[in-house]
Design goal:
Chain B: It catalyses: N(6)-[(R)-lipoyl]-L-lysyl-[protein] + pyruvate + H(+) = N(6)-[(R)-S(8)-acetyldihydrolipoyl]-L-lysyl-[protein] + CO2. The complex is a heterodimer of chains A (about 325) and B (about 325). By secondary structure, chain A is of the alpha/beta class. Chain A is built from 14 helices and 14 strands. Chain A folds into two domains: about 1-185, Rossmann fold (3-Layer(aba) Sandwich); about 195-325, Rossmann fold (3-Layer(aba) Sandwich). In chain A, helix 3 (about 60-75) runs parallel beside helix 5 (about 90-100) and helix 10 (about 245-255) crosses helix 11 (about 270-280). Chain B has helices at about 1-10, 15-40, 55-60, 75-80, 85-95, 125-140, 160-170, 190-195, 200-205, 220-235, 260-270, 275-285, 290-310, 320-325; strands at about 70, 145-150, 175-180, 185, 190, 210-215, 240-245. The chains are: A alpha/beta (about 325), B alpha/beta (about 325).
Chain lengths: ~325, ~325
């Protein structure tokens, strides 16, 4: 059986269940205790688990991320909630130089079961310092797991898994998704990292997207369906580790790929996925890989400009049409 | 009566011998280690703790099993004082598989998590939040462990110094921040880094009990630390201890330290922490020259054995390295 709940409620269920199961799980962040967090993810946890395991912090991201990493090294399971991914930049030393490297630097003895929950993406006029999609920064650093759930069920299952494994996890939520609803299975629901999910099966073209680009890509797929184009939508759910097999399997079937990311185009994860596809499935492609991505620009405040800065449904539709109108390579060569 | 009271308060032979043994072991490790470096047996960076031995020695003597330490880039002394196996330390510096980190870490990353050593750190200031985090983990687990971060005057101007100590303060953590004030941030004099060179005042400013001590006096450090540890175990932490000291040379083995004034260096060398620990053993306990030499020879032998052990050890193989390539 399943219940229809919001993304934020699914996250809360995951934290609640894991805190119940493991007394070393605790959560710290700005305004997460009595207030229940800016997105109400931690509502009710203070009264259930007490001030020892649910703590507000001062506005000191480098300190709180570092303290979380230290607690993880010492054998606890911290969740550090960072209000905006933009603010996580203050704690990059602790993420990049400490958490990510500790396992190797200690010859494998040291593990860092540290979970940083934060959210990114454009949110309707919150401007350049509260709108970024920065997953590529973490994707680039060996040692970090990068998780970007798009649905309530994925959010719950992946967060529960994050709290049971032993590497630092960048758990990246999206500000637009907190109030979205979806079915979440009853009972234990844990999703292993590295397993993508086919959000819509199809045969004509493979669309790869994550986080808030999933609802947008699904909308584009419905528009395309009306034109008789049957798109398959794949959500890798975790960018590190990446479910290459699912992506390559789908491309082998459709022979066409479009990758959609909200983040800026330059140096993005989409480019890396495109490179993987061309390396491992070049001869199965009937058209160049398309990338639909954000402009290489900070997000402007003006709402029309904000919209113009990140992929919209029609941008995805157009990209798919382009790949389908390309001739198969063999034919083009003739 | 007065004489009797004094005698009752006099430090035991056991304590003084422990302090001297630790300080001397660090001295031997660093001075012999530098020779290995010059021979090309140790590669990379090597930041000697020479001249600062009194701090790690006094601090760790007041700790017990189950406690935690976090260290710095100049971390050999902390490891040794913590009770690390010299064999595995030398092996790590010689990048051997028998080293603490199997040769993956090196001088700046020696750690022993199982023994509560959170490790040396190549990023100045990073040990502060990591140490506070360990203290937080211990508070959540409900044990009475004390965590110590060895920090530095150089790190005291880093933002995480304030951020972490403040978190330890608002959460009443069992945490001691030991600020080794060797008066140089790499090569920049402390007077050029801050207006007020008495760094213990940084703790006072945010409501943390803070003290200053002569870092070259391992016994004084020990007494202050013992008091701090007791308070922490009673839930009265955190506490900051500033230990004044001076390096015997530049920032690392390849820095001759020409910017260090000769008279200041001479002043601190006259107050050498190893000499003072040795003198205490002679003057207070009455050990004779032969007994001192016996201790020193034993420690030198331990180091020589460690070098032989390390030379005979193998390096990690590429096949073993693959385990990490897969995991990462």
């Amino acid at each position: 059986m399943a219940r229809e709940i919001m993304y934020r409620d699914a996250l809360r269920e995951a934290i609640d269940e894991e805190m119940e199961r493991d007394s070393t799980v605790f959560i710290i962040g700005e305004g997460i205790a009595e207030r229940g967090g800016s997105y109400k993810v931690t509502e009710g946890l203070l009264s259930k688990y007490g001030p020892k395991r649910v703590r507000d912090t001062p506005i000191a991201e480098a300190g709180m991320i570092g303290v979380g990493v230290g607690a993880a090294i010492a054998g606890a399971r911290p969740i550090v909630e960072i209000l905006y991914i933009d603010f996580a930049m203050l704690g990059m030393d602790m993420i990049v130089n400490q958490a990510a490297k500790f396992r190797l630097m200690t010859g494998g003895d040291g593990r860092v079961p540290f979970v940083m929950r934060t959210q990114g993406g454009t949110g309707g006029g919150v401007a350049a310092q509260h709108s970024q999609s920065l997953e590529a920064l973490f994707y680039h650093i060996p040692g970090l797991k990068v998780v970007m759930p798009s649905t309530p069920a994925d959010a719950k299952g992946l967060l529960k898994y994050a709290l049971r494994q032993s590497d630092p996890v960048m758990f990246l939520e999206h500000k637009h998704l907190y109030m979205t609803k979806g079915l979440v299975p009853d009972g234990e629901h844990v999703i292993e990292f590295g397993k993508g999910d086919i959000k819509r099966p199809g045969k004509d073209v493979t669309l790869i997207a994550w986080s808030n680009m999933i609802p947008r890509t699904l909308e584009a797929a419905e528009k395309l369906a009306a034109e008789g184009i049957d798109a398959e939508v794949i959500d890798p759910r975790t960018l590190v580790p990446l479910d290459k097999d699912m992506i390559l399997g789908s491309v082998a079937k459709t022979n066409r790929a479009v990758i959609v990311q909200e983040a800026v185009r330059r140096g993005g994860v989409a480019s890396d996925i495109a490179s993987i596809i061309q390396e491992e499935a070049f001869y199965q492609l009937d058209a160049p890989i398309e990338i639909v991505a954000g402009l290489n620009i900070p997000i402007p405040f003006n709402l029309e400009l904000e919209k113009a800065s990140v992929p919209q449904v029609d941008d995805i539709v157009l990209a798919v049409r382009r790949t389908l109108h390309s001739k198969p390579l063999a034919q083009a060569a003739e | 009566m007065a004489a009797q009271a004094q005698k009752a308060n006099a430090p035991s032979r056991e304590l003084l011998e422990k302090l001297f043994r630790t300080a001397y072991k660090i001295r031997v490790f660093e001075s012999e280690g530098i020779k290995l470096y010059r021979q090309g047996l140790i590669r990379g960076y090597f930041h000697p703790y020479l001249g600062q031995e009194g701090i790690a020695t006094g601090v760790c003597a007041a700790l017990q099993e189950g406690d935690f330490i976090a260290s710095t880039h100049r971390g050999h002394g902390h490891c040794i004082a913590w009770g690390a196996d010299v064999k595995r330390m030398v092996a790590e510096l010689l990048q051997k598989e028998t080293g603490y980190c199997r040769g993956y870490g090196g001088s700046m990353h020696i750690a022993d998590i199982r023994a509560g050593n959170l490790g040396a750190n190549g990023i100045v200031g990073a040990g502060t939040p990591l140490g506070v985090g360990a203290a937080l983990a211990n508070q959540i687990k409900g044990n009475d462990a004390v965590t110590v971060t060895f920090s530095t005057d150089g790190a005291s101007n880093n933002g995480t110094f304030l951020e972490s100590l403040n978190l330890a303060a608002i959460w009443n953590l069992s945490y001691v921040l030991v600020v080794e004030n060797n008066q140089y941030a790499v090569s920049t004099r402390i007077e050029e880094s801050t207006r007020d060179v008495d760094l213990y005042k940084r703790g006072l400013a945010i409501g943390v009990e803070s003290h200053q001590v002569d870092g070259n006096d391992s016994l004084a450090v020990y007494h202050l630390m013992q008091d701090a540890v007791e308070k922490c175990r009673r839930g009265e932490g955190p506490i900051l201890i500033e230990a004044k000291t001076y390096r015997h040379m530049g920032h690392h083995v390849n820095d001759p330290g020409k910017y260090m004034p000769a008279d200041t260096l001479a002043y601190y060398k006259e107050r050498d922490p190893v000499d003072r620990a040795r003198n205490a053993l002679v003057e207070i306990v009455g050990l004779d020259q032969a007994e001192i030499e016996a201790i020193e020879n034993e420690i030198k032998q331990e180091f020589e054995d460690a070098v032989e052990f390390s030379k005979a050890s193998r390096e990690i193989t590429l096949a073993e390295f693959n385990e990490f390539v897969e995991a990462y």
